[in-house]
Amino acid sequence: MGDTFKVSMQEWSHWVDLNLTSVFRVTRHVVEVMCAQKSGSIVNTASINAFYPNPGSVAYSTAKAGVVGFTKAMALELAPFNIRVNAICPGEIRTTIWNKTLNQLSNPKAALESLEHAIPLHRLGTAEDVAKSVVWLGSDEASYITGAILVIDGGRTVGVPVE
């Protein structure tokens, strides 16, 4: 048996509430106004971990996979109201929290180089990379896109293994 069943119910609930239930709650709050105006765009945040989980991330990966399913279901339900629902799935994005985690490793430089090597574009993403994708999905330029899951990972999930 792996680490899956070592996850406490409290930890499971934390990750599911934080990453899935929160998406449901926000959608409930905005959808009434959007339905009344017969237009809108919702962009949810999932993760590449929804498709490619890491060992020890069962609750997080499950919640992010739930966001993907929720996005598709809401795209179907809200399309008659001209409301588009899409999701982004970021990969390795260089953030303050990401840097903190990296710097806790025994050899941060080697770990970063290994990861960058596994990303076909050979770099981590930036917050701006993600933000531009969200803005585009929410714009009229993406007016015929709903139920889409946009992976923002520099090609990481194409299949290059991390060494």
Radius of gyration over C-alpha positions, nearest whole angstrom: 17 Å
Helix share of residues? 40-55%
- By CATH, the topology is Rossmann fold
The assigned CATH architecture is 3-Layer(aba) Sandwich
Please, what is the CATH homologous superfamily?
NAD(P)-binding Rossmann-like Domain
Largest beta-sheet characterization? 3 strands, parallel
Which CATH class is shown? Alpha Beta
Molecular shape: globular
Number of strands: 3
**Helix count, per DSSP?**
5
List the domain count as a whole number.
1
Q: Span from first to last CA?
A: 25 Å
Spatial order of the strands in the main sheet?
A: 1-2-3
By secondary-structure content and strand pairing, the structural class works out as: mainly alpha
The succession of helices and strands, N to C, reads: HEHEHHHE
Query: Could you list the spans in which at least 5 consecutive residues all have pLDDT below 50?
Result: none
**Residues in β-strands, percent:** 5-15%
Summed over residues and divided by their number, the pLDDT gives a mean of 94
Describe the protein in words.
There is one protein chain. The chain has one domain (3-158): Rossmann fold. It has helices at residues 9-37, 58-78, 96-103, 108-118, 127-138; strands spanning 40-45, 83-90, 149-152. By secondary structure, it is mostly helical. Helix 2 links the parallel strand 1 (40-45) and strand 2. The protein is built from five helices and three strands. The chain has a three-stranded parallel beta sheet with strand order 1-2-3, sandwiched between helices. Helix 1 runs parallel beside helix 2. The radius of gyration is 17 Å and the shape is globular.
